[in-house]
Every structure is written in C-alpha cells, then in structure tokens.
C-alpha cells in the first residue's frame, strides 16, 4: 500500500540517512516528505545543501520562514503545532524521526506519537556510560526512545537492551536493524572481525596526530573552561611526539574556534569539512572525547584514543579492539602516544565488549527499517487500572506492617554508593539493588549514587567520587573481573577502613569460568574476599564463600519490582500446557536440556508447548541442541515478559547453575508452577511447596518427569504467598539495611599489610611479588614515562606509572622518586615505606643514603631520625669505599 512518509531532519547526517531509506527496495511505492524546523537559517542552509546532493531533487520543507521574528523559546513552542499542521495538510501516514530527545525532536515526538505512527531511527552511537548516576536527571542520551514511539530501530544489542530494560516499566517496540551506512560496509566489517593494525612504524619517527574535538562546553557536558584546559593540556602533551592538528566539530561555536586559533604550535582544520576514512589515513594517531568517529578511524586503520577527563561524566564505553583505547588522564594519553612513538605499536583495550555488541552487521538495513515503518502502529498508552487479583498480597497484620514501616526507616545509611557495571533492568544482577535503592529513597532523603566502573580509567577518580560516602556496596563480583581498576579500588577502600560490602550474585559455575578467563584478576579478588563483608542471595552461595575464606557471609536473598498490573496465571492448565523459560540463551541456562525435554515431549505425543524468552549470546557450544519444538522469542520488555508468564502454565528453569534466579520469584508472584534443578538457589525456598518440583539428576528424562508431575497438582496459595513475602520489597529492604549496618569482618589485615606478607612469602619462594592484570609494556618504557611525568610536574600520573613499575621491579631511582612525591603530599607513612625499600634495594650505597637523607628532610619531625641515620650510613659507605680503593692501591 502506498504511503506518505514524512521524515523530520535536523542535520546533514539526517539527510544522508533519509536518502538511504528512500533508496531501499520498495521505497518507490511511497511518497517521502522531508521536513525540518529552523529559524536562524544555518541549519536549514546546511540541510538544503546536503539535500541538493543526496535527495535526487526532493525538497526539504521548513516549518518556519527565515524572516519570522520569534524568540528561541517561542520557536520551540511553535514547533509542535506546526508539525501537526504539516502532517494534517499533507495527509501524512507515517513519520520517521532520528532523535526524540533533542530540542526540536522532542517537540515533534510529543505532538505526534499519539496521532500517527512515529518510528525512531538511531543515527549515531548512543551506548554511553556515566561515571556518576543519581536517581534523578541523566544525560539526554539516556532518555532516547522514551517518547513512546510506535517503533525504534537501533544499531545493535547494547541500545536494544538499554531501551528494553531502562526502567522496570519500559515497554518500547525495539528492532535491531543495524546502522544505515555502517552495518553493510565491508571495510568496517573487516575492521570489526579481523582487526589488522598497520605495519609497525619506524620507532622514534614523529607522529602525525589529529585531535577530533567535541563541543563539550556548548553541550553542557563540561564547563567551557575545563574543556579548554584539558584540550590545551592534551595538545601540549602530544606535541612532544610529533605534529598535532585539531579538527573542531562542525557545530562548534565561533568563540571556541577563536580560542583554538590561539593554541601555539597547533594546526586547526576547517570545522565544516567532513573527515572520512580517506581523510584520516594520513594520520598515525587520532584522539577524541566520545564520538561516532571511531567508525571512521576503524575503517582507516588508524588507532584512536578515547580521552575521558576526570570531570567529564559521559564516557565512551570500552570496546575490546586492537585499534581503540580508553584513557582517563592527560598522562595516560601521553603514555599511549609515547609507546606508539617509541615502538611503533599501539596498546589497544584488553577489556570491554566486542564491537558487535554495539553494531549489528547485515546488508539489508534500509529495507528492514522501511519494513518497520510500513508495519508500525500507534501505541496505546498502558492502562493504569489493575485487574482482579493483580495487587500483590500484603504480609502480616496492620500492626505488623506499621511496625515494619518504622523499622525500615530506622538505620538507613545517610549516603550509599553502589559500584557496578551498568545499572538497568536487563539482568537479574542490577534489579535487586535498584529496587532496594528506590525503596530507600521512598523512605527518606538518602544520598544514593550509582558508580559505573566501566566508565572510569583511574582509581583516583573513583576514590574522589566516594570521598564523602558512608557505605560502599559493590554489586556482584563482575567489577572485580571486568574492570581493570576494580580490585585495586577495593583494596584502597579496605586499607582506608571504609565500610565496604559485596553483594554477590555468582555461584561455582561462574567462578570457574572467570577463574579460567580472567585468571590474574580472579586471584586478586580471592585475596580481597576475606577482608570484605559479603552479602549472599542463598545459603548455598554463603557456604561457597565460607570455603573461599569469608568469615561471616550474610544471606539477604533478593527482590524484584512488584507491579500492580501483574496478571496471575490460570489455576488449571489448558488442553495444551505452555512451558516457558526466561533467561539469556547460553549453555549455563540449560539450552540443551530445555530443547531435549521439548523433543522428548513431542516424541511421547504430548501437546506441550515450549517457549524461551531471552536474547541469544555467544556462549553456546556447537553441540548444543536448539530445537524447532521451542518458540525462541528473543529479548522482550519486562511488561511483555509478564504477559507471557501470565499466558503460561509452568516456569521451567533449566539452568544448571543459578544462585537465586529472579525469574523464579516473578513466576511465583504470578502463581505459575515451577520446575528447577535441585542445585539452584530456588530449591532452598520452594522445596516442599505444592506447585514446585525439582529434579536431582540433570538429565532430560528427570526434568521431563518433574514437569509431568507438577502439571498434575495445584499451586498452594498460602505457601506461594509466604515465598512471595520473603522476596517482597519491604522485607528485602529491611534485611539489606540491617546487613549494611553490620560491623566489618573483624581485625583482618589491611591490604597493604597482607600484600607485604604475601610479598615476603613470594620472595622466599622465589615467585613474583604480586600478580597484576595489566596491559604489557616493557619496563624501560615505563621508566621513561615516569621520568617525563616527574619532569613536567604531573604528580598523579607519575605516581600511577611509578606504582606500576614497583609492582614489577624496585629500581632505586623510582623508589626515591616515589618517596619524594609522597613526602611532598604529606603522606609520611608511605614515603617512609618507600625509603625503607630503597635502603635495602642495593646500588651505590653512598648515593642512595644521600638521596634518602634529602627526601627525609621533607618529612619534618618524622623524618629527623631517618635523616640522621642516612647521614651516618652515607659517611660509612664513603669511608668503606675509600678504604677499599686504598687497599686495592696497596
């Protein structure tokens, strides 16, 4: 059917995307009506120029005339009514939008989403992390897609997961279509799957460096003064290694352009020129803050450093790729450039997600988007009313509930920081802690902060963000395995006697996997565990942690949001019972056994229907059966999951290993029969409850028999309600708050003392001083970096590099230099420890003791005794040396 499709365009890129959609197979059946909203003339002129080259004669209509005299606020207020009039006058059937959170786009979305199908198409990288998140306002990228469009077309799984699980009630229609102009580009596909960095450069040749600037001040992501301060410092540091050019963003305002012209020794490129892969190939290194430019640098084979200054909250995520590197300071940036300059080799990220997590590669992106547009329908707002039986059961008498309400307010921490890797409802890891923090906020004005460790590069920055926090709650062990700074950060917090708790979600299967794949960090984590207060989700998990040296783990279980509109499943199974599983598609979740049970039921002629809800992961072995007897539904929003549970009869948790799966709790809330393997955490709270069965042998036949048995019995309402109350929000909040008030694990040795003892044992055994998971770099290059930072007065990065050197070796010059830096900061204890290490490290004894004496003078009264000793030892060394020379002369 022929349609009239409007496309709202705000920039040059939108014109290019529109052209690709208009050239998709089947697009000629429709009439496209590009439209924009501009008053000052610049945006309209840019769009008109691009349209004349890309849209084959199709004109872009402007909702405003240039001669209109409207204030900016009036212009924005008028945008909604004018787009509505345009849609009515032109008989528009559909509208495509590229941003529903921009000033213009949000007005368009607000005006139209209830009247005609609006399809939102992702036009740039949106999967950013944030160093600090509060329960209130976030960056506009976080809210992308929240205007209730008819459908959203996204680049890859990362954005889809964010939209689907941004909040407990998110329910968008999300389609992973891939990116127009990127997903089908063979150069980019090759760079993503088989990165081939350029041949090694000749070492010490000057680098050609390009800094791809962003309008951080104009976008209010960083104060203008801070933006310029860090940009100037970065350019000055990079200039030591070659020629530096700055390419301003096309939307940069004139004031910043004038400032750039005043940077000494820097070439400023034309901001209006588009720099594609061909234009980047002549450079040896590119630097930016956060930008879709990474796609062009990958095409060109040029290494890119993503620089995140400490004050910048929004951060480009770490992508595990040989040509991409995230750094958090000017010093780290200089170190990476210095290594490339010295060796011709670029040190890319060795952590992070693969590029395919952010960008799906396929050839028919435009066709898929057009299909979504053609099939889109206006989405009705979700009804606020609740169905009968949907209100979660209240626990206890009114008096008991009133007492519990008082207790809930009794001892909440005044300030709580949650450390984790991402904070959304996409997995069961984040859901309990998000639910808990929201409950705390409902009770009292607690200062709660979410710290995403994947957004940080330096331990110092996280410590600064935590300096005024009472309680630190680490959400799962994942940050200790996946973050390069996780273990070091917790060690620093413990050594400072901070109140640190670990809320664990892992069991033996995950621990074994991570021990194999992140061996060094896993060993670091095991050394830290006995010094932490560990909170567990099951008694079996607590037993496992006791075996790892945790003295007193506390079982707090977990919780899930309780929604008033949750519909309960039918009490009696239908003629064709429906059996459902919710979880990511991976071997640990039991893909194979679920498929084989479905095949077994079919072979026995049973009319059972099997469905699996969850996204596919790479963790599927080639031997795993993916049965056609199962309906594989993919990832669904939480609202859709609830609907599917209500339409089912049995929740079959096929996982071989799960600590306390939240999906089972949700199934209990909706009164589904439940079947699980006996070794998962659910067994300890559901064992003996009518409506629940477990199987002791992890085999298809045992699981099949458990399903057949549970279908023949009714759910016990009283027992299910009791289990539901165990996991309800007030009960969980009370347990968690009480646990966070517990004392720490006692007189455990602090990290520094434990590390010293381990170092002594390792020295006796002839083993390494300490295992560290770091990006490999030769020690002589680190020594060069350390000297450069000291010479330029860059204390923070000198300490960072010096610490890394001392983890591998203990050269006297670095020990003395680090002691001097610590002494200058008033850190007398640390300086004395470094001087003591220097005293026994060897070398020219007279010179060493002279240097110790010099540094000890900086320590005031505490260093007086050290200085006197050093003087005596220096004189003794000189006399001994002179005597030896005299004896040699005889």
TrEMBL record:
Give the residue ranges for region: Disordered: 745-767
Report the superkingdom from the record: Bacteria
Q: Which residues form a coiled coil?
A: none
Question: Per its record, how is this protein called by name?
Answer: D-inositol 3-phosphate glycosyltransferase
Recorded source organism is Streptomyces griseicoloratus
What is the taxonomic lineage of the source species? Bacteria, Bacillati, Actinomycetota, Actinomycetes, Kitasatosporales
């Amino acid at each position: 059917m022929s349609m009239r499709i409007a496309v709202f365009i705000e920039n040059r890129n939108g014109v290019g995307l529109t052209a690709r959609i208009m050239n998709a197979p089947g697009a000629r059946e429709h009439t496209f009506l590009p439209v924009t909203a501009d008053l000052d003339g610049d945006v309209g002129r840019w769009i008109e120029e691009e349209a004349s080259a890309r849209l084959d004669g199709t004109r872009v209509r402007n909702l405003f005339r240039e001669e209109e005299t409207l204030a900016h606020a009036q212009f924005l207020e008028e945008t909604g009514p004018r787009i509505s009039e345009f849609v009515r006058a032109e008989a528009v059937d559909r509208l495509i939008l590229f941003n529903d959170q921009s000033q213009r786009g949000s007005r368009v979305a607000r005006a139209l989403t209830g009247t005609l199908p609006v399809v939102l198409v992702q036009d740039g990288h949106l999967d950013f992390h944030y160093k600090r998140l509060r329960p209130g306002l976030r960056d506009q990228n976080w809210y992308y897609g929240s205007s209730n469009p008819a459908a959203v077309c996204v680049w890859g799984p990362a954005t889809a997961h964010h939209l689907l699980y941004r909040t407990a009630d998110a329910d968008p229609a999300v389609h992973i279509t891939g990116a127009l102009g990127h997903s089908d580009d063979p150069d980019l596909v090759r760079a993503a799957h088989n990165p081939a960095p350029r041949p090694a450069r000749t070492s010490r040749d000057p680098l050609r460096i390009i800094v791809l600037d962003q309008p951080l001040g104009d976008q209010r992501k960083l104060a203008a003064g801070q933006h310029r301060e860090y940009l100037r410092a970065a350019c000055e540091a990079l200039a030591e290694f070659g020629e530096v050019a700055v390419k301003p963003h096309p939307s940069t305002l004139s004031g910043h352009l004038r400032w750039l012209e005043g940077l000494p020794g820097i070439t400023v490129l034309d901001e209006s020129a588009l720099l594609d892969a061909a234009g980047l190939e002549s450079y040896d290194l590119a630097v930016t803050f956060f930008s879709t430019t990474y796609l062009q640098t990958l095409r060109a084979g040029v290494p890119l450093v993503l620089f995140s200054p400490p004050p910048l909250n929004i951060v480009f995520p770490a992508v595990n790729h040989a040509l991409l590197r995230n750094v958090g300071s000017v010093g780290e940036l200089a170190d990476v450039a210095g290594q490339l300059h010295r060796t011709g080799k670029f040190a890319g990220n060795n952590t992070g997600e693969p590029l395919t997590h952010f960008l799906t590669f396929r050839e028919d992106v435009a066709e898929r988007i057009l299909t979504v547009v053609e099939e889109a329908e206006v989405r009705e707002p979700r009804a606020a009313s609740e169905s009968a039986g949907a209100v979660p059961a209240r626990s206890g008498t009114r008096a008991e509930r009133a007492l519990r309400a008082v207790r809930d307010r009794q001892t909440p921490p005044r300030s709580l920081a949650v450390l984790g890797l991402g904070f959304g409802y996409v997995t069961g890891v984040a859901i309990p802690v998000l639910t808990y923090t929201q409950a705390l906020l409902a009770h009292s004005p607690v200062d709660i902060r979410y710290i995403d460790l994947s957004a940080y590069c330096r331990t110092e920055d996280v410590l600064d963000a935590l300096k005024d926090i009472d309680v630190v709650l680490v959400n799962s062990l994942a940050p200790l395995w996946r973050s390069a700074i996780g273990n070091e950060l917790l060690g620093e917090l413990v050594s400072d006697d901070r109140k640190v708790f670990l809320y664990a979600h892992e069991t033996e299967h995950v621990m074994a996997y991570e021990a194999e794949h992140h061996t060094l960090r896993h060993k670091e984590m095991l050394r830290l565990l006995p010094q932490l207060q560990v909170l567990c989700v099951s008694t079996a998990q607590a037993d496992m942690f006791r075996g790892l040296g945790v003295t007193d783990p506390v079982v707090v279980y977990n919780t899930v949001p309780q929604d008033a509109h949750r519909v309960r499943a039918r009490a009696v199974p239908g003629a064709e019972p429906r059996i459902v599983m919710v979880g990511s598609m991976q071997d640990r979740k039991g893909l194979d056994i679920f498929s084989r049970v479905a095949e077994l039921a079919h072979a026995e002629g049973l009319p059972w229907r099997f469905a699996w809800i969850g996204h596919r992961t790479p963790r599927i072995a080639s031997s795993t059966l993916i049965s056609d007897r199962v309906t594989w539904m993919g990832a669904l929003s939480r609202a859709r999951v609830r609907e599917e549970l209500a339409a089912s009869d049995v929740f079959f948790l096929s996982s071989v290993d799960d600590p306390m799966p939240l999906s089972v709790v949700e199934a209990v809330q909706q009164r589904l029969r439940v079947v699980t393997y006996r070794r998962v955490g659910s067994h300890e709270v559901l064992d003996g409850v009518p409506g629940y069965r477990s199987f002791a042998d992890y085999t298809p036949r045992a699981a099949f028999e458990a399903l057949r048995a549970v279908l023949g019995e009714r759910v016990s309402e009283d027992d299910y309600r009791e289990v539901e109350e165990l996991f309800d929000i007030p009960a969980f909040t009370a347990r968690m708050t009480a646990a966070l008030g517990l004392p720490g694990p006692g007189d455990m040795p602090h990290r520094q003392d434990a590390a010293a003892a381990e170092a002594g044992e390792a020295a006796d055994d002839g083993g390494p001083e300490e295992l560290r998971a770091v990006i490999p770099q030769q020690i002589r290059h680190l020594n060069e970096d350390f000297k450069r930072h000291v010479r330029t007065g860059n204390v923070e990065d000198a300490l960072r590099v010096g610490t890394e050197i001392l983890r591998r070796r203990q050269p006297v010059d670095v020990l003395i230099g680090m002691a001097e830096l610590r002494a200058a900061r008033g850190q007398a204890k640390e300086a004395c420890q470094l001087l003591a290490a220097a005293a026994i490290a060897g070398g020219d004894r007279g010179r060493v003791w002279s240097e110790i004496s010099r540094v000890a003078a900086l320590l005031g009264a505490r260093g007086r005794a050290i200085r006197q000793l050093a003087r005596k030892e220096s004189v003794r060394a000189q006399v001994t040396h002179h005597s030896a020379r005299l004896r040699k002369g005889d």
